[in-house]
Design goal:
Length: about 950
């Protein structure tokens, strides 16, 4: 049974500017290790405690083990490391306009800045430092002043994620970073003047700062209970920070120390806990709107949809789950999914209703912007007299989503929804791209959606996590596409954990004419490098309100809620290659519209285009399979020399894509072929896919089961009809991993596409009865396989380059299987690639270096007519004995012939096959002669 985490809630305090400027509160200490002190103007030095207010001009200092996190009202956070000093000079926040400005002075030490509304406001962030003024726009930034992060490193400013960072030095010199994975490094000339250099973030910078900000051993952020990264996410801060959902700041935000509960009237408004929670308003909906006291009943009624967990839950497959609340399984019956009318007296900040579990009391909100509202016992929320604890999210047009736990026990979730359904669906048909941020699930407490906290034994600070993107379809087409993805590769070799989530769906029109969101949950993970991969399935759906209608809320579709398909009692399940018992669970996420821009602008801001037609190329992966005779077998495989073995057709007019790929082991005994996306190979049987631009696209399995099968010992086993293959394909640039590849990209080449894929095919053990499970079933799977593709040049085009040579540079990425003392470990590895080629002689040399710590090189030869292909054999240098074939092709960048190269490789050691690897590579032309 999965662990039942206790509920530890973070405070996200909503602060205003009604305090006099001389002592204006600007933030709150959200995580403290007790080695931080405050020096306030005209006040004695004090030790900072969790939950303390921070005021203007207050100098914050930490000692050698101190660690502090300051949370501002707009969602901006400063994490202050050891031996550091900071003062917030100015902070202005207009929640109605969604704008904010902050000016701070960083005197010494190590810091991480995560911008909320400040970094989305032009000129909103100004950080004064001894080396100049730092401006930040929509970014997560690490700052080390005076080499405080250790290791003899210089002062530096690193962009972790985001759009733009500038440093203006004392002499007026300005340098700018606009790509994650780059740094501004500050040095000193012999004459004492300052130097500023922009370069890729050197190895060790990130880990040194992370170590500084992770806290000393035994510390816990000031909490009496050791918190987790998930608690940071549950705080709601992630919904504002840098327009990114993931909580990448390791110092957690635990429960703040309690303040006295009271009600006061401030500026004519009823305020609860006025000292710390100024800004919570008493608002009632659908009541009298004259605002006066006419002596009558001015109460209002808010229809709520309330979902709770029963004692058991029966899935659509007839399975009975005990204690379903521990797995997020709510609803499923009229008793656990019901309508409740919340009555709100005109002078009350709370409403009350009647349920089959007794009286319900909930706070109500009036919000002009999406706001997380912590609900603690002092707030009085209860069900049947038992406190409800958690977060109430409020938004425009009366939207409210309560994600609570009965008595603080997350095995007893309580969800409630209120709001106004979208009245005019045409607002979703303008051809724009919408960006929705999402909240974490209260039970899983993870920064990724639709995933189980118990599935993989690692934390998620290194995960690359996208928002939810909605690509509107113009005209009357309601089938706009949704896309969200995430990728985690943590650790190396036998200690690596990896996972990927690919969530692709559509807005559909139900039988009653209402719009709803339908998702296919796909992805895979390896929670033990010495074990098997597991693959994800399940339907994700939007929730309707109590009064029905569209399942997208607000006049501009500002909010929606996604979870398992509660209407059909559907659920999420993760199965390994043997398909044995696996946990059944669901998660609950609130989405809020962050941005809506024209599609062309969205892509231009990302440096992407929508010019893709068909691409061909190469693929690789590790095939895992259960053996018909019992046991488990695995083989590394590639698509070989034929670029037609991998193709993607991009259908820009429909915002979709479809394709197929196949890989086979070197000896041909094991092979896998899959179809993905929409309408491949003249097949009318489509699948889910989303093509937003050439950096952001994904697909799930295609419905034509005849196109997805595996081959074992020359016998083909086809995917069973009516059972979806757990297939996904994802662009690599959608979720960059800078720790794996430079800047998170395969190469500096927009014309070249690459990414990840995976599948789990389930077939009848009797090929003569491909749709019968009576004879048993077999499964074959691939986790985080790789692919690369482009516009492949022809030999005729290459002939124009005769008499010249070229040099290419890029990276290689793929899968490794290595024998360790505990067994065979399977993991992802990467390295650099370089290649030189003589177009006249059709010959060259390819090197793949530092791939899993090994170096390879070999000579290449052209293959003749048709496509401009090359092949060769790679040999390990420096005393190693691994060797194997490589195949590739030249790719064009428009009229620029052979602007890049792509290919695959298949390597294995000759001494007992103790090390094997297969993968893909890509590179851009850097030198012509």
């Amino acid at each position: 049974m999965r662990p039942r985490p206790s509920l530890v809630l973070a405070l996200c305090l909503i602060l205003t500017q009604t305090v006099p400027a001389a002592a204006q509160t600007v933030g709150v200490t959200a995580a403290v290790n007790q080695a931080a002190r405050s020096i306030r103007p005209n006040a004695a030095i004090r030790t900072i405690a969790l939950g303390d207010n921070v005021i203007h001009n207050e100098r914050i200092e930490t000692d050698t083990v101190g660690l502090l996190q300051i949370l501002l009202a707009d969602g901006t956070t400063f994490t202050v490391g050891p031996n550091s000093a900071l003062a917030i000079d100015r902070f202005v926040y207009d929640p109605d306009a969604g704008t904010a400005q902050v000016a701070a002075t960083l005197t010494k030490g190590v810091f991480r800045f995560i911008g909320g509304k400040t970094s989305k406001t032009p000129g909103g962030v100004s950080l004064g430092t001894p080396v100049g003024t730092i401006g930040i726009r929509g970014a997560v930034v690490d700052i080390s002043l005076g080499g405080q992060a250790g290791g003899g490193r210089p002062t530096h400013v690193d962009m972790i994620f985001g759009n733009d960072v500038t440093l203006t030095g004392p002499n007026g010199q300005t340098n700018r970073i606009y790509e994650p994975g780059y740094s501004i490094i500050i040095g000193t000339n012999p004459d004492g003047s300052q130097t500023q250099t922009v370069q890729k973030t050197p190895p060790g910078f990130g880990s040194a700062i992370q170590q500084s900000l992770a806290g000393a051993p035994g510390t816990s952020g000031g909490s009496p209970n050791r918190p987790s990264d998930g608690i940071v996410v549950a705080s709601g801060v992630a919904g504002e920070n840098s327009d990114r959902t993931p909580a990448i700041n390791n110092p957690p935000i635990p429960l703040a120390r309690p303040e006295p509960d009271r009600l006061e009237v401030v500026d004519g408004e009823l305020i609860q806990d006025a000292q710390l929670d100024v800004g919570r308003e008493q608002v009632v909906e659908d009541g009298d709107d004259d605002g006066g006291d006419d002596g009558g009943d001015d109460s209002a009624t808010i229809p709520l949809r309330v979902l709770t967990a029963g004692s058991t839950y029966v899935t659509n497959g007839g399975e009975t789950v005990e204690t379903p609340g521990a797995y997020g399984l709510v609803g499923g019956s009229a008793e656990e999914d019901r309508r409740v009318d919340l009555t709100v007296p005109g002078s009350s900040p709370t409403g009350n209703g009647a349920t089959n579990r007794g009286p319900l009391i909930l706070p109500v909100y009036g919000s002009t912007a999406f706001t997380p509202n912590p609900i603690l016992p002092a707030d009085g929320a209860s069900l049947g007299g038992v406190p409800l604890i958690g977060i109430g999210y409020s938004g425009v047009d009366g939207f409210a989503a309560y994600t609570l736990a009965i008595a603080g026990d997350t095995t007893q979730p309580f969800y409630a929804l209120a709001g106004t359904p979208l009245a005019d669906p045409s607002v979703l048909r303008d051809g724009d791209v919408r960006t929705y941020a999402f909240t974490p699930d209260i039970i899983q407490q993870l920064p990724v959606p639709f995933f189980s906290a118990s599935a993989i034994g690692t934390e998620f600070s290194g995960a690359s996590i996208s928002d939810f993107y909605l690509l509107e379809r113009p005209g009357n087409d309601p089938s706009s596409v949704f896309l969200q993805s995430w990728l985690l590769i943590s650790g190396e070799d036998q200690n690596q954990r990896s996972a990927v989530g690919v969530n692709v769906g559509n807005i559909l029109t139900a039988g009653d004419g209402a719009l709803n969101v339908d998702y296919g949950r796909r992805g895979s993970f390896r929670n033990d490098p010495l074990g098997f991969s597991s693959h994800m399935s399940g339907t994700i759906s939007s929730l309707a309100l109590a009064k029905g209608g569209n399942e997208i809320f607000g006049r501009n579709g500002e909010n929606l809620v996604l979870t398992g398909d509660s209407e059909a009692n559907d659920y999420f399940r993760d199965a390994d290659v043997f398909g044995g018992p696996s946990p059944i669970y669901s998660t609950f996420h609130v989405l809020n519209l962050e941005e809506e821009v024209p599609r062309a602008q969205f892509s231009a801001d990302r440096g992407a285009t929508r010019e893709l037609g068909q691409i061909r190329g190469f693929s690789a992966g590790l095939i895992e399979s259960d053996d018909p005779d019992g046991g488990y077998i695995q083989e590394l495989g590639t698509s070989g020399i034929d670029p037609n073995s991998f193709f993607i057709d991009f259908q820009a007019d429909r915002d979709t894509l479809g394709g197929e790929l196949q890989i086979a082991s070197r000896d041909g005994t094991l092979a896998t072929r899959i179809a993905f996306g929409s309408g491949t190979n003249q097949s009318g049987s489509g699948g889910r896919s989303a093509y937003i631009d050439d950096d952001l696209f994904a697909a799930a399995n295609n419905g034509d089961t005849s196109r997805s099968f595996f081959v074992r010992d020359q016998t083909a086993y086809r995917q069973i009809d009516g059972v979806s293959a757990r297939t996904y394909l994802l662009s690599g640039d959608a979720n960059p991993q800078p720790e794996l590849l430079p800047e998170g990209r395969l190469c500096d080449c927009q014309f070249l596409e690459w990414g990840w894929w995976g599948t789990q095919i389930r077939a009848s053990a009797d090929p003569s009865r491909p749709n019968s499970e009576e004879a048993g079933t077999l499964r074959t799977a691939v986790h985080l396989g790789t692919w690369v593709g482009g516009d492949i040049a022809t030999e005729a085009e290459l002939s124009a380059l005769a008499g010249t040579t070229a040099t290419y540079a890029g990276s290689a990425v793929g899968n490794v299987s290595q024998v360790f003392s505990g067994g065979i470990a399977d993991y992802v590895a990467s390295g650099s690639m370089s290649m030189s080629y003589d177009f006249g002689g059709r010959s060259g040399e390819l090197s793949i270096d530092d791939f899993d710590g090994r170096d390879f090189s070999g000579t290449l030869g052209g293959t003749g007519t048709g496509d401009a292909l090359f092949s060769g054999v790679l040999f390990e240098r420096n005393g190693g004995d691994a060797t194997g074939p490589t195949h590739g092709a030249f790719v064009n960048d428009g009229a620029n012939v052979a602007a890049g190269v792509i290919g695959n490789f298949d390597l294995q050691s000759q001494s007992g096959n103790s090390w094997q690897a297969s993968g893909v590579f890509g590179g851009a032309r850097s030198v012509d002669r």
